[in-house]
Hints:
Helices cover 43% and strands 16% of the residues. The protein is globular. α7 packs antiparallel against α10 (329-349). The model is unreliable at 1-23 and 27-53 (pLDDT under 50). The strands form 3 sheets. Strands 1, 2, 3, 4, 5, 6, 7 and 8 form an 8-stranded antiparallel β-sheet that branches. A 3-stranded antiparallel β-sheet has the order 9-11-12. It has a two-stranded antiparallel ribbon with strand order 10-13. The chain is built from 12 helices and 13 strands. The chain is of the alpha+beta class and 374 residues long. InterPro entries: Kinase-like_dom_sf (IPR011009), Prot_kinase_dom (IPR000719).
Amino acid sequence: MFRGCWYITFQSNAGEMLGNNKFNFLFSSYSGFQSGADLEFSSGDLGQLRVQDVGEGSVKIRLYEGRVAQGPFKGTPVIFKVYPGQRAAGIEADMMAANELNAHAFLQSSSEGICKNLLLLLGGFETKTGEQWLAFRDNGKYSAADFAKATSEKISRARSLQEKPWNPFEQAQAFKRRTYFVIRLFQGAMNGLAYMHNHERLHQSLGPASVILNTIVERDAVYLVPKLRDLAFSVDISFSSLEEGPSTFSEDLWRRALSAGAFTPMERRSFGIADDIYEAGLLFAYLAFVPFCEAGIMDGLSLQRLLESTFKLDVMATREYCLADDRLLEAVKFLDLGDGAGWELLQAMLNPDFRKRPIAEAVANHRFLTANVL
């Protein structure tokens, strides 16, 4: 770990979690599957750290991992999300950081308590150079995209000529484990989205990288707790906000709502919720295909084009196409469970008419996610 004595005063709006306390953090670069580094760190060394760069819109964001080394939360693992200052990225980065902080702070201040399927914000601060740092509890270094990638690569290795063919029994067990893991993953993500919608917030950037996991080991599915992150583009859909007019992050959404025939505040709110459901439908399709196929056979963009452009959101026509490709049969088998309950759910979420899409709560309670489809 990077060791040093960098004291930071958090002015946290996230309930009473941190307050105005000083904390001493131990830092490390954040590197996804790998973590830790044997370097000494002090506040002056910050620019020399190797970090993971991730993109949100046109803004490059850095991630650091660490833990609280002093104070009432001593030992708490932390992920720092660092937005560049205005000189490096313009005002957009500041607006994204502020929007993400405000969205988390609002959602965590609910009288219902904190949702277990949302990443927990611990606080935030600004450096002298204008960088915006948000501190989140480190609940896992993996995303749904990491799980899908690792799983598809595992399938490729198992089916390679260099390895013996799978035992049929073990293959069936592996399919059951993967099915259970994917169902728990997606249901957890939808529970998080339902909580957001019930508290008047849209996600607006939901995807495989936006769902953080505490494990990607399929045998540990019973311990899996998916959490939504990346709320930089979150939109407030309370009626008071809708009456004020579009903000920077909602302007495109409400323009599309108008084109779809949503004119009143109530209709626009319904469109926004349905728009999140559509993105969640694409996430469901991704989880149904990529982890059940060999590496390189299917990716999120190709799958979206197949559904939207080739088959015009006709899910059953997509199924017939996939049946003809042996490489996609495991994905078809997954969605066929429960007499085609997976295809039924996918079609509902991707319904071309936004008014006919289910709400997040209905998705989380759909028979494909709650019944014993195995």
